[in-house]
Amino acid sequence: MYVYRVVKRRQLASAPCIVLLEVEAPAVAAKVEPGQFVIVRMDEQSERIPLTVMDFDREKGTITIVIQDVGYSSAMINSMEEGSHFLDFVGPLGVPSEIENLGTVVCIGGGLGVAPVYPIARALKEAGNKLISVIGARSADILILEEEMAAISDELVIATDDGSKGVKGFVTNGLEQIIAQGTKIDAIWAIGPVVMMRSVANFTRPLGIKTIVSMNPIMVDGTGMCGACRLSVGDETKFACVDGPEFDGHLVDFDLAMKRLSFYKDEEERAKISKDC
Ligand code: FES
């Protein structure tokens, strides 16, 4: 049996606790593509949770994930030390991002969404696109992966709700700034909280800018069986974990998605534990 060893742990923020883990998983690293996710289980008592891949190294055979403490399982994973192991690390799952040279693309990551947008942004840059990135957070102390995003982007715009870094406001304010400069945008990837993706999609719809969103936040089991990630996309019913996680943001019924997201709120609240970051 293969053991999925944590080879690197880096704390990205402390309140909320956000941790980056690089994990040995050679079979997953050999095949994974930007936009895909893995399902991890820490030990026999843990639940399986789907997490989008932040990075991969095919030579080292590692996958990097970023986890924010939002409840019991994520708190337990965030407390894992280097040298500890996951019991299961399954993947790659989901449909990879469609990467091609489109011209000028904007990659938007809000909160934890900066992690999954990173490999997509890098692949788009490698495909020849001009890459403008917009990353945002509530405040500068919980803004993640700024250096990594700056290293791959032609231009990086930062937005914080409280104005402690970059543009004061939301990622949509950062996007507005780019458009105001007269930049012609060929496509946008927006990944973050559902409410953020809805705002970006509402902003770009009248402008006719193709906008891809990742519906990873509404997934629960990630296997197509629980039904929690059912979405209405245009006039079709889709499952984020099987048909996505990426969809045309102009066609997603975000109100329905937000309702689904709150289904397990009470259970999540009851299961919350306090752990040092
Ligand atoms: Fe359960 Fe998609 S997450 S069906």
What does this structure look like?
This protein has 277 residues and is α/β, with parallel strands linked by helices. It has two domains: 4-93, Translation factors (Elongation Factor Tu (Ef-tu), domain 3); 104-261, Rossmann fold. Helices cover 26% and strands 33% of the residues. The protein contains nine helices and 16 strands. It has helices at 26-31, 72-78, 114-126, 146-152, 171-180, 194-204, 240-243, 254-261, 265-270; strands at residues 4-14, 17-24, 37-41, 49-57, 62-68, 85-86, 88-93, 104-110, 130-137, 155-160, 167-168, 187-191, 211-214, 230-233, 236-239, 246-248. The protein has a seven-stranded antiparallel sheet with strand order 6-1-2-5-4-3-7. A seven-stranded mixed sheet has the order 11-10-9-8-12-13-16, with helices on both faces. Strands 14-15 form a two-stranded antiparallel sheet. A hairpin with a 2-residue loop joins strand 14 (230-233) and strand 15 (236-239). The radius of gyration is 18 Å and the shape is globular. The structure holds FE2/S2 (inorganic) cluster.
What is the strand tally? 16
- What is the CATH C level class of the largest domain, in words? Alpha Beta
Overall 3D geometry? Answer: globular
Main beta-sheet annotation? 7 strands, antiparallel
CATH fold-level assignment of the largest domain: Rossmann fold
Number of helices: 9
- Name the beta content range: 25-35%
Give me the Rg, rounded. 18 Å
**CATH level 4 superfamily of the largest domain:** Nucleotide-binding domain of ferredoxin-NADP reductase (FNR) module
* Class from secondary-structure proportions: alpha/beta
Order of helices and strands: EEHEEEHEEEHEHEEHEHEEEHEHH
Tell me which CATH architecture of the largest domain applies here: 3-Layer(aba) Sandwich
